[in-house]
Amino acid sequence: MPKLWQMDDYDECLESPAPDEPPGVFCSLSVVLKPNNRSELWKLIEEFSSDYKRHYNHQVMKRGVCIKRCQKAIEKLSPAEINALTVEPFPIDVRYKFNDGILENIPTYRAAYQNVLEICINKELNDTYGLVAHTEILSCDKSTDEVVIDALDMSFLIVLCALVCFVTLSSWYDSSINYKRTSDHYQQPLDSKRKMVWVSFSIQRNWYRLTSRSHDELNQKLRFFQAFRFITITLIIFGHFTMLLSVSPTTDTEKLERIMHNVGSMILTNGGQITQTFLGMSGVLLAIKFCSFVEKRKGKVSFFSVPYEILYRYVRLTPVYAFVMLLHGTWLLKLQTGPLWSWIAKTEQIFCRRNWWTNLLYINNYAHPDEPCVQQAWYLGAEFQIFIIALIVLVTIVKIPRAKVPILGMVLLAGYVIPALFIYYQKLEGTYLVTLEAQRYLLWYDKYYLHAYIPTHINFGNYIQGVLTGLVYCELQKRSINLAQSKVFSIVWHLSIVILPLSWLPSYIFYVNDFPTPSVWMAAYFIMSKNLYGFGMGIIILGCIDGVNGVVKRMLNYPFFEPLGRLTYGAFLVHPFVMRFMFASVRAPVHYSDLLTLSLVFGATVMSLLMALVLCLLIELPTTALQNHLFGSFKEQKSNHVDPETVTNGTNQTLLNTGHESKKCKL
Questions:
Q1: Residues in domain Acyltransferase (predicted)?
Q2: What does the pLDDT read at residue 583?
């Protein structure tokens, strides 16, 4: 079969031409083979591609072509040969490109080069395979293209320079008032609120906030969450790495297809479930902190606190998030070049400039999900929405304690029934299918991704199960029950660690069969298998809190996990930025060996954490400190405050303590 990827030399094509020569032009193309039932090769392609759940669609190929080479290749063709290689329009019922209207100047390039490129491609296909195809330009680069800097690009530089100035001045001021020249100065609150505001951007003080450990009993019990966060973000990076393998030019397409024929591949393709770890942890922390607050306030909780909590949480999450969006909408495109860069980085810039408001409102998992800005941030939208619902539920069960069990039961039931109804009526399969072909277009148009993965109602159940896990822990604490003393629970805990990944293997039946839809049993299987992960994570979390396995807990409590766990929010936001440079800037199809793959995953993880460190010291910790000081006065006036910093999503840095109380404390 024709190769899915072929590319001319990009840099040679765009070398500066002589003064009397036209500029070099390099175009990325989508090539769709025209059906030919007289061709045995076409019948093979059609049959092989019909297994759409495990194979690429080999009718659709990607090419990177230099216009000069094509013009030379067809200049000696006769009019009859050119006419034979010109394909009349034919029905195309498969996805072969991104939606029209995204990239500018494409109509101009198509008018200028479409016919030349189609004849050139068809000459090669006809000579080699006896087939012809429809060719469509996706993007083009010219040797005369210049970098254009607009007002938004300048605004990013201004913001960045302002942040650097704030950090420099704040660090200098903090150092100048350190009269004893001791490191303890940076770990202690200063004697006035004004001074604390001035040192909010101090890099020395924020470094200690990042690396120090809290020693109160509850934070010690929950310290393993930082290890969970770091392990989870590493697995997420690996999962996104495998998706980008399908997007970027590779010589290993058949290797990826062979993997999809292995039952063990279900652990990889179902790896999207790993994001449910963050949801579960967030629900647990929200419930535990809420219980602690209610106990201190003796049950005095008001619904009027909910808007304040939402605002506090919004301010906590948004600054670094908005900075990353601004980076993607401005300088991402200008930092690299390549045959794929325009339709990988340019689309990101356009989407961020067009749909930024959906991200800032945290509704990006519903509004324009097929034009995502910072695509992985669908999670932030879903989690923020569920946080609001869960907080209202928790306040309700405190205000109406007699209805606690019915309310929680109804909410949990909704977390199972509502997603199942959506799966049924949208005629989806019994699992979230991750197909190679859908990944070629970054899942933007994939119905399984849009309807069975990112919506809030699909992810609601595991968050609520996390909340229930937190409430169970609080109840066990009241009754002085230690689960580590239960042999039965210990057995269940150890089995859960093994069963959770194995529970993904049965999903293979949906890749090898086409069951009729809609189906009640598939809708039920989908939601039960998805929420089983949250249930298992709840058992694992409860066991880790009580130390069911002392060796595991000591390993998870190693000090180096503390800063790594706190950096996961930044790493979560920036790792696609890093991975774009690894994949979207390649000049030719690459052979990804297993060793190279592991090396790139390791490199992506390290670079993401380093960028996260910069963001943490430059934006995240300073704005958190400012938020704590500026909200502090209002907080003291509100007797019903639950600190949202302590119940933030699983990617955020702190467990429970914000470190801004008047008493001395460490993060």
A1: 224-615
A2: 84
Q: What is the pLDDT of residues 262-319, one digit of tens each?
A: 888 787 777 778 889 999 999 999 999 999 888 888 778 888 889 988 999 999 999 9
Q: Which long-range contacts (CB under 8 A, 24 or more apart) does 73-79 make?
A: 73/120, 73/123, 73/124, 74/116, 74/119, 74/120, 74/123, 77/119, 77/123
Name which of 591, 592, 279 is nearest 462 in CA terms. 279
- H/E stretch holding 320 reads helix 305-329
pLDDT at 632: 66
Average pLDDT, the chain: 89
H or E segment at 64?
A: strand 60-66
* Residue 177 CB neighbour total at 10 angstroms: 12
Residues 6 or more apart whose CB falls under 8 angstroms from that of 640 comprise 297, 300, 301, 302, 304, 305
Q: Are 105 and 343 in contact (CB under 8 A)?
A: no
Residue with tokens 């959506």: 422
Phi, psi dihedrals of residue 33, rounded to the nearest 5° = -65, 140
pTM: 0.92
| CA angle at 285 for the pair 282 and 289, rounded to the nearest 5° | 145
Helix (H) or strand (E) holding 33: strand 25-33
Angle in degrees, 0-180, between the axes of helices 520-546 and 404-425, rounded to the nearest 10: 140
- Determine the Cα–Cα distance for residues 449 and 242; give it in Å rounded to an integer: 16
Beta-bridge partner residues of 6: 63
DSSP-derived 3-state class of residue 330? coil
What's the pLDDT at 49? 94
Residues with Cβ within 8 Å of residue 187, at least 6 apart in sequence: 205, 208, 212, 666
Residue 343's alpha-carbon distances to 113, 114, 410, in angstroms, are: 18, 18, 46
Axis-axis angle for helices 305-329, 347-360 (nearest 10): 170
Give the closest residue to 270 by CA, choosing from 569, 500, 605.
500
End-to-end C-alpha distance for the chain, whole angstroms: 58
To which residue do tokens 């209002």 refer?
A: 634
Cis before 19? omega within 30: no
* Number of CB atoms found within 10 A of residue 245's CB: 20
Phi, psi at 260, each rounded to 5°: -70, -10
Report how far residue 37's alpha carbon sits from residue 23's, in angstroms, rounded to the nearest whole number. Answer: 41
pLDDT at 651 over 50: no
Of 450, 617, 462, 477, whose CA–CA distance to 531 is shortest?
462
Instruction: Quick: pLDDT tens for 114-159.
Output: 999 999 999 999 999 999 999 999 999 999 888 899 999 999 999 9
Q: Is the pLDDT of residue 597 over 50?
A: yes
Over the stretch 314-348, which tens digit does the pLDDT of each residue have? 999 999 999 999 999 999 999 998 898 888 899 99
